[in-house]
Design brief:
Helix 1 links the parallel strand 1 and strand 2. The longest helix is centred in the first third of the chain and has 14 residues. It contains 14 helices and 22 strands. The strands form 6 sheets. The chain has a 7-stranded antiparallel sheet with strand order 17-16-13-14-15-12-18. A 5-stranded parallel sheet has the order 6-2-1-10-22, with helices on one face. Strands 3-5-4 form a 3-stranded antiparallel sheet. With 412 residues, the chain is an alpha+beta fold. The chain folds into 2 domains: 243 residues, FAD/NAD(P)-binding domain (3-Layer(bba) Sandwich), CATH 3.50.50; 153 residues, Elongation Factor Tu (Ef-tu), domain 3.
Length: 412
């Protein structure tokens, strides 16, 4: 690599800007050009975390951190060993952006505004002399004897750019088209599938009667599989959402796709209690409150409205007292509590944070450097590779870490 190389960064998102800025720091004098296909820079940053930008997650143990990535867990172990969450926090602090931690571990700028991150990146890019081209799509890449030639489409015009090194950070996409130039240069693109989505229940009354209600700890399972996750669950006007549901959607992405997003979802509203444990509590209630109506006395710390809904669904006569409940009544109530059945018919993108699994095949990348094993001088960063995390700042952490490594241009 030349002392002052010409570096082209493809993608004007989080990974692209982080790679470009750090490349300018690691390679003083380098000429750095960033190409963004759309007219808007850092679009995903602006909508992340409801407009607050969930920069990372307060998890400093890499062995725990990597468990939040359905794809790429093994590869990220060495990536995070080089650029960790703590280093991310320090990097932003050095640029004047202080992060705060919320109860669930998510980290945001103290300003609670994504614009803080956007302004930071744009300011640094200007100070570092990085040339930025918007509405400029890279549609072709060729590797010569020593240098790359990029074919760039801008409106009705097409022009060419030379580069000693390329950092590709185009993000994740639902269709193959944006990856066409990557495939043409020899890389494999694994199937592209939605990874973070909520569950639609169009025929179930729960979404109409309980929309907006949240349960702090529930278990969500895809029937017929081992995919089973616990955490907060939110009932929305279209179905089920919340961290437990999003984690299920990420880890079972392939299964949902193959089922055309029509599946049976099982919910344990008590969290992790077994049917036997639930039944024991119900029997105790029957013994202690035999003259009371069950619906009037919520158990398992469930919201009253949900408890009443489940009682009404389980019992043919919601006015029965505990003493009047038959053995079958008790079994049906237990079943509703720890194994409620819901018919999923379709999905909905989680807010505006579209995440996909799929991308450049992990086997074709050297994760010590993020360099292509097929084309020397070509580096990857962020969601363009087949790595995705669950919600909570994990996808951004992948972007920062891989971009920081890629920005070294092969220098370990």
């Amino acid at each position: 690599m030349k002392t002052s190389p010409q570096i082209c960064v493809i993608g004007g998102g989080a990974a692209g800007f982080f790679a470009a800025i750090n490349a300018s720091l690691f390679h003083p004098g380098a000429r750095i050009t960033l190409f963004e296909k759309t007219a808007k820079l850092l679009g995903k940053v602006s909508v992340s975390g409801g407009g607050r930008c969930n920069v990372t997650h307060h998890c400093f143990d890499n062995s725990v951190l990597i468990k939040n990535y359905p794809r790429g867990e093994r590869e990220l172990r060495q990536v995070f060993s080089r650029f960790s969450v703590q280093q991310t926090i320090t990097w932003f602090k050095e640029q004047g952006v202080v992060l705060k931690t919320e109860e669930d571990g998510r980290m945001f700028p103290v300003s609670d505004s994504s614009q803080t991150i956007i302004d930071c990146f744009l300011k640094l890019a200007k100070e570092r002399g990085i040339s930025i081209f918007t509405s400029s799509e890279v549609i072709g890449v060729e590797k010569g004897t020593e240098r790359f030639t990029l074919k760039v489409k801008s409106g009705q015009d097409t022009f060419y750019e030379s580069a000693d090194a390329i950092i590709c950070a185009i993000g994740g996409h639902a269709k193959q088209e944006p990856y066409r130039f990557i495939k043409a240069i020899g890389h494999t693109i694994t199937p592209l599938l939605p990874s973070l989505f909520t569950i639609n229940l169009p025929t179930d009354t729960i979404r109409k009667e309980l929309q907006g209600l949240a349960v702090a700890q529930a278990g969500v399972k895809l029937a017929g599989t081992k995919f089973n996750y616990q955490g907060p669950v939110l009932i929305t006007h279209w179905g089920l959402s919340g961290p437990a549901v999003l984690k299920l959607s990420a880890y079972a992405a392939q299964h949902f796709y193959e089922a055309n997003y029509n599946a049976t979802i099982l919910v344990n509203w008590t969290g992790t209690l077994t049917a036997e444990a639930v039944m024991e509590v119900l029997r105790q209630q029957q013994k202690e409150r035999h003259k009371a109506v069950p619906a009037n006395y919520p158990c398992f710390q469930l919201p009253r409205r949900l408890w009443e809904f489940l009682c009404n669904k389980a019992l043919d006569d919601s006015g029965k007292t505990w003493a009047e409940l038959s053995k079958k009544d008790m079994q049906r109530l237990s079943e509703q509590l720890c194994n409620s059945v819901y018919a999923m018919q379709g999905k909905t993108t989680f807010k505006e944070e579209f995440v996909t699994c799929g991308g450049v095949d992990l086997k074709e990348i050297d994760f010590k450097t993020m360099q292509s094993k097929i084309v020397s001088g070509l580096f990857f960063a962020g969601e363009v590779v087949n790595i995705d995390g669950i919600t909570g700042g994990f996808n951004f952490q992948n972007a920062w870490s891989t971009a920081w490594i890629a920005a070294h241009l092969g220098k370990v």
